[in-house]
Design goal:
Elements lengths: L6 H6 L18 H5 L2 E3 L4 E7 L26 E7 L1 E9 L1 H19 L8 H37 L1 E5 L4 E5 L23 H16 L3 E6 L1 H6 L4 H6 L29 H12 L2 E4 L3 E4 L8 E4 L5 E6 L1 H4 L10 E5 L11 E6 L7 E13 L6 E4 L3
Parallel strand pairs: 1-12, 7-8
Antiparallel strand pairs: 2-3, 4-14, 5-6, 7-11, 9-10, 11-15, 12-14, 13-14
C-alpha cells in the first residue's frame, strides 16, 4: 500500500516531481519465448522415460513361415529421468509509517470527495504517488524473476549446465552436451579475419551434427557484434562484383580498396546475414540482452550479458526432434508448478502479508519454475571472435 507524507511535509507543502531513471538496458528475453517455453506440471517433481534407441538400425529379413524377431533394445541405455521445480520469490516491505500515512491520506481524500469539497492540499497526488511506487516495486520484482529464468536458460545453453550458489542454496545441473561441441573454433578462422569462411564453418557444423545425431541445424543465436563481423570475409565482398586490388585478400585492404558498403545500397551486415541464411538454411537470432548488478555500498553499475557476444549457439531443427522425442518437453521447457498463493495454479503468483506487524505490510511476487533440456547434446557452440 502507498505511503503518505509526514506532518512536517504537509506543513511545508513539499512537491514530488517524480523519479529520475537511468536508460533501461536491452532486456528482450528469448528464454521462455523461444528456447524453453512454460510447461505447466501438476507437481514439483516430474519424471519421464528415456531410451537411446535400437542397438541396430536395420530390420532383419525372415522367411515367409518364420517368426519375426523381437526388436533388440539395450536396457543399459534406457531409464527414467527426473526434474524438480524450485520456488523463486522476493518481496518488498512497507513500514508502518508508510502504510499509516497512506491510509490517512486516502481517508481525507474520500471524505473530501464525499462532501463534494476540494481538499486544500494535494492529497490526491500524495495518494497516487505511493500507488505508483508500489506499482514500480511490483514491476521490478517481476523483472528480477524474469531475469532469473532467463539466466538459468541461457546458462544452460552457454555451459550445458546451471550452477547456482547464493550462500544458502547450492546446486548444479548438467544437461550433457559433449565437450567437443562447446566453444569450438571455426575451421575457417575467426570471423573478424578477411580470410574467414562463415558459410563453410556453418555447413561443416551442420554436416557434423547430421553425421553424429541425424539432425540438421535450424537456428543460431548470436550477438550483433558477431553478425557485423560476417561481412569481413573476402567471400562476401566478392559477391558484390567489385574486384579488389591485388594484395587486398587475406589481410588489410590495399590502399584504394573500394568498400561496397559505401557504394551499393543495401549492402552491409544484414545483406551478409541474409546470404548466410539462404545458403545454409540456418536462421540467425540477434540477442544482446543484459541484466544490471551493483554491489551493496558501491556506485558502480555493471551490465552483465546473458550470453557471450563472441559466440554462435546452434540449435537443431524442430522438425528433426520429432523423430527423437514424443514428450511434451521437446528441446526444452520451463516447468512451472502450482503454488498456494496463486490459488494452486501454475505460473507467477503474488501475496500480501500484514499479520505479523498489523501496521506494516509485505508484498511479494514469485514463481515455481525450472528449465529442463532433454536434447542439449544436439546443440553446438562456436567461438568466432576473440
Amino acid at each position: 500500500m502507498p505511503p503518505f507524507p509526514s506532518q512536517d511535509r504537509l506543513v511545508r507543502k513539499e512537491v514530488a516531481l517524480g523519479t529520475l531513471r537511468e536508460i533501461e538496458p536491452p532486456k528482450t528475453h528469448i528464454g521462455t519465448r523461444l528456447l524453453a517455453p512454460f510447461l505447466e506440471v501438476a507437481s514439483d517433481d516430474v519424471i519421464f522415460d528415456y531410451a537411446r534407441g535400437l542397438t541396430d538400425g536395420l530390420a532383419p529379413a525372415r522367411a515367409e513361415d518364420a517368426e519375426s524377431d523381437l526388436a533388440q533394445k539395450d536396457l543399459a541405455y534406457g531409464g527414467v529421468g527426473r526434474a524438480s521445480v524450485i520456488d523463486w520469490a522476493l518481496k518488498d516491505h512497507y513500514d508502518a509509517s508508510d502504510v499509516t500515512r497512506y491510509r490517512e491520506s486516502l481517508l481525507l481524500q474520500q471524505q473530501a470527495q464525499g462532501a463534494n469539497q476540494a481538499f486544500p492540499l494535494t492529497v490526491g497526488s500524495m495518494v497516487d504517488e505511493f500507488r505508483q511506487k508500489v506499482a514500480r516495486d511490483d514491476a521490478l520484482r517481476r523483472r528480477k524473476l524474469d531475469n532469473r529464468l532467463e539466466w538459468m536458460i541461457t546458462q544452460a545453453l552457454e555451459t550445458s549446465a546451471i550452477s547456482y550458489n547464493d550462500g544458502k542454496i547450492k546446486f548444479t545441473v548438467d544437461y550433457g552436451r559433449p565437450a567437443g561441441q562447446t566453444d569450438e573454433a571455426p575451421a575457417g578462422g575467426l570471423w573478424s579475419l578477411t580470410s574467414s569462411d562463415p558459410i563453410g564453418d556453418i555447413m561443416a557444423v551442420d554436416q557434423f551434427m547430421y553425421d553424429t545425431y541425424g539432425v540438421h541445424l535450424g537456428r543460431a543465436i548470436t550477438s550483433r557484434r558477431v553478425l557485423n563481423n560476417i561481412l569481413n570475409s573476402d567471400r562476401f565482398i566478392a559477391r558484390s562484383g567489385i574486384a579488389l586490388p591485388s594484395g587486398a585478400a587475406g589481410g588489410s585492404p590495399a590502399s584504394g580498396t573500394i568498400d561496397p558498403m559505401y557504394i551499393i545500397d543495401g549492402w552491409g551486415p544484414n545483406a551478409a546475414q541474409q546470404i548466410v541464411e539462404r545458403t545454409t538454411g540456418v536462421r540467425f537470432i540477434e540477442y544482446d540482452s543484459v541484466y544490471r548488478t551493483r554491489p551493496i555500498g558501491s556506485n558502480t553499475v555493471t551490465n552483465n550479458r546473458f550470453l557471450s557476444d563472441n559466440k554462435v549457439y546452434f540449435l537443431p531443427r524442430e522438425e528433426d526432434l520429432a523423430e527423437l522425442d514424443d514428450t511434451q518437453i521437446g528441446f526444452g521447457k520451463t516447468l512451472t508448478s502450482p503454488h498456494p498463493e496463486g490459488n494452486f495454479t501454475s505460473g507467477f503468483y503474488e501475496w500480501e502479508r500484514d499479520t505479523v506487524d498489523p501496521w506494516g505490510t509485505d508484498r511479494g511476487t514469485g514463481i515455481k519454475a525450472f528449465p529442463v533440456f532433454l536434447h542439449m547434446d544436439l546443440t553446438y557452440t562456436m567461438t568466432v571472435l576473440a
